[in-house]
Design goal:
This protein is an alpha+beta fold and 265 residues long. The protein has a domain of 104 residues. The chain has four helices and twelve strands, in the order βββββαββαβββααββ. The strands form two sheets. It has a six-stranded antiparallel β-sheet with strand order 1-12-2-3-4-5, with no helix packed on it. Strands 6, 7, 8, 9, 10 and 11 form a six-stranded antiparallel β-sheet that branches. Strand 3 and strand 4 form a beta hairpin. It is globular. The chain starts with 8 loop residues before the first strand and ends with a strand. It catalyses: S-ubiquitinyl-[E2 ubiquitin-conjugating enzyme]-L-cysteine + [acceptor protein]-L-lysine = [E2 ubiquitin-conjugating enzyme]-L-cysteine + N(6)-ubiquitinyl-[acceptor protein]-L-lysine. Its main location: cytoplasm. Keywords: Cytoplasm, Metal-binding, Transferase, Ubl conjugation pathway, Zinc, Zinc-finger. Its EC number is 2.3.2.27.
Length: 265
């Protein structure tokens, strides 16, 4: 039914963009309450947001799909609740999973944060308390270790230091961005790469692709850190000396959605 699909909306490349289309509304009173919720038996999602990349043949078929439902509050109002997110690349669909500990907890307008709270929300490795976290523990998905401590942990223990659950793999995640020329405008478009810790070799920084430089993962996903976080900035730039290898997979961080189409179904 085409009446249930919104018109296509064009977006420029960038983050923190809001979808607003007053011409397309959903009136909950026109639907039965069970139709507004997710039906597990039929696998019917009441809401689908489909963002398609529309920039050249290189990205043909790339899209992001958000599957959601409507949730009713106690006061009778409804809100949209995301259930799943999928990324389609070259015809292959990937289910996105949340990484715990990757959010920028320092990015707050409240400058009067207690020292103990800052310590608890630290971006440093939970083992050495000095290097920046860059290694993910699977399957619990806790980003809590630096690469050095992760190598040590896999020989000495088999439990996550956060949840104490057994882990079966360690995934190191690095971020790179294109180097800026002296006259280039300021931009922040990092690329995320990953490498499993199964290899015994420790690659050197010479394996960074030409024209790229390494940045902090926390900074790559959440944007440049605030000037007040000088301590964290020093740690982040010290991380530039860490070994880097070409990406086994990569995704644009901070650039989605690219010029493309976004529709509400």
């Amino acid at each position: 039914d085409n009446s249930l699909q919104s018109e296509t909306v064009q977006y420029k490349r960038g983050v923190c963009q809001q979808f607003c289309l007053p011409s397309h509304t959903v009136d909950p009173s026109e639907w039965a309450e069970e139709e507004l919720g997710f039906d597990l038996d039929r696998e019917v999602y009441p809401l689908v947001v489909h963002a398609v990349v529309d920039e050249g043949d290189e990205y043909f078929g790339h899209c992001h799909v958000l599957l959601g439902t409507f949730e009713k509050h106690t006061d009778g109002t409804f809100c949209v609740k995301p259930l799943k997110q999928k990324q389609v690349v070259d015809g292959v669909s990937y289910l996105l999973q949340e990484i715990y500990g990757i959010e920028n907890k320092y990015n707050t307008q409240d400058s009067k944060v207690a020292e103990d709270e800052v310590s608890d929300n630290s971006a440093e490795c939970v083992v050495c308390l000095s290097d920046v976290r860059d290694t993910l523990i699977l399957p619990c998905r806790h980003l809590c270790l630096c690469n050095t401590c992760a190598d040590t942990l896999r020989y000495q223990a088999n439990n996550c230091p956060i949840c104490r659950l057994p882990f079966r793999a360690l995934l190191q995640i690095r971020a790179m961005r294109k180097k800026l020329g002296p006259l280039s405008p300021t931009s922040f478009n990092p690329i995320i790469s990953s490498q499993t810790s199964d290899s015994e070799e420790h690659p050197s920084s010479e394996n960074i692709p030409p024209g790229y430089e390494v940045v902090s993962l926390l900074e790559a996903l959440n944007g440049p850190l605030t000037p007040s976080l000088l301590k964290i900035q020093k740690i982040s730039w010290a991380w530039l000396q860490a070994p880097v290898v070409p990406a086994t997979w990569e995704a644009e961080a901070g650039e989605w959605p690219e010029p493309g189409r976004r529709s509400l179904q």
